[in-house]
Design goal:
With 395 residues, this protein is α/β, with parallel strands linked by helices. It has helices at residues 9-14, 24-39, 50-58, 89-98, 111-116, 118-125, 131-145, 170-183, 197-200, 207-219, 240-255, 268-275, 282-285, 297-310, 322-327, 336-353, 366-384, and strands at 78-80, 105-107, 160-163, 192-195, 223-227, 261-266, 288-291, 314-315, 363-364. Helix content is 47%, strand content 8%.
């Protein structure tokens, strides 16, 4: 069979779909046809394009019709070395602000990733105090963003403890840490679930394990936050329901250490004497521990002024200072939470004062502060007497 007799080469090949061997004539025909097809490829077309080749050389373009000699005209990126003399979280924020990311530039650090977490870094940096915690988070970031945690048999616990009294921003800190780790790929999602004892412990034996496992499953890839984790333990009696919850949680801390971050919070002494004593394996699984100290009068003033500014209000010059907070510091036992309620009372007093007169609207005066403080203390006394108040939602 010759190539001239084969009017349909595809049909010719189909006839041999079930043939294990080709005859010599047919093999020759196939080889001939393949050679002809090859000769029509652009590997031999350069001579047909002399005009194009001459134009190409004239314009100094690195393009070739021949596949085997063609060179890719890659755009060469410029290089830039950024000074990484970073000691504080604020230093890192300044570095990001002063170095905009350019995709056509190669850097000595992953600048794009830093820009991805810029908002979270600023949120944490803007929180009053917490210098030790900020430094610890900074150290963790340097470890994770360089992918030092990735490798065979390299699996690190990420579970974290936040020691501190109510009102010190533990929930907000936990949310920021979760967002940071999800954006840099340490966590696979930005899930954040805050739970209490009622979310984990059931009223029947055996049901607590099911309930706890369900919550853990819902948090995989993200953060499970347990505030006042010592409430899981009933220290006054042998509570099998609590123990069931703790044992399931302890097991999950290991089984899901690659795809789950558990953050617990509360007073240090109570966590140490109840939660960690409920199961010996818990303590070794929470490797990150941050202590959030109580705020002093200057820090309370900073928290207060920041809240005022963030809410679009202003303070009359000299209407309040750190000495005022020093004199009333015992009233703000829940720190930031109490400051928020205090400011609400101030705004209500301000609204009463300026009714019918829009001059200096949203400008807080010393009278607003004094009246607001009196209302704040009055409502605090009602709360202590277990009388429902307008502000019970903040407790």
């Amino acid at each position: 069979m010759s190539i001239n007799k084969s009017k349909n080469f595809i049909t010719f090949l189909d006839n041999y779909s079930n043939t294990s061997q080709l005859s010599y004539p047919d093999y020759s025909t196939l080889l001939y046809q393949t050679t002809q097809e090859y000769n029509m490829m652009d590997t031999n077309l350069e001579s047909e394009f002399n005009c194009y080749v001459n134009w190409q050389k004239k314009h100094n373009l690195d393009i070739s019709i021949k596949k085997d000699t063609a060179k890719k005209n890659k755009h060469k990126k410029k290089s830039m070395t950024i000074n990484t003399d970073i000691h504080t979280l604020n230093d890192l924020v300044v570095l990001i602000d002063t170095n905009p990311y350019d995709e056509d530039t190669e850097y000595n650090i992953d600048l794009k990733q830093l820009h991805d977490i810029q908002n979270e870094l600023k949120d944490l940096n803007n929180m009053v105090g917490l210098e030790e915690l900020k430094t610890s988070v900074l150290n963790q970031l340097f470890y994770f963003i360089q992918n030092l945690h990735i490798g065979e048999n390299n699996s690190d616990y990420k579970h974290t403890v936040l020691f501190g009294p109510p009102g010190t921003g533990k929930t907000e800190i936990a949310k920021i840490i979760g967002k940071l780790y999800s954006k840099i790929g340490v966590l696979t999602s930005n899930k954040f679930k805050k739970v209490t004892r009622n979310d984990l412990i059931a009223g029947y034996l055996g049901q607590t394990a099911i309930k706890t496992k369900k919550v853990i499953s819902e948090c995989l890839g993200g953060v499970l936050f347990i505030d006042e984790a010592y409430s899981l333990i009933n220290k006054d009696q042998n509570d099998s329901f609590s123990q069931e919850c703790i044992d399931v949680l302890c097991e999950a801390l290991s089984d899901h250490k690659n795809d789950l971050m558990v953050i617990i919070a509360g007073y240090e002494d109570e966590l140490e004497n109840t939660f960690f004593k409920a199961n010996r394996g818990l303590e070794s699984r929470f490797i990150w521990r941050f202590k959030i100290d109580s705020y002093n009068s200057k820090e309370l003033l900073l928290i207060f002024t920041k809240m005022v500014q963030d809410q679009g209000w202003k303070l009359e010059p000299g209407c309040i200072n750190d000495n005022w907070f020093e004199q009333h510091i015992d009233t703000f036992k829940h720190f930031g939470r109490d400051i928020e309620i205090f400011l609400t009372n101030i705004k209500i007093s301000h609204g009463r004062r300026i009714y019918g007169n829009n001059n200096n609207k949203k400008l807080i005066t010393s009278n607003d502060i004094q009246n607001g403080y009196e209302n704040f203390v009055t409502n605090r006394k009602k709360k202590d007497q277990q009388v429902p108040s307008l502000y019970s939602m903040y407790c």
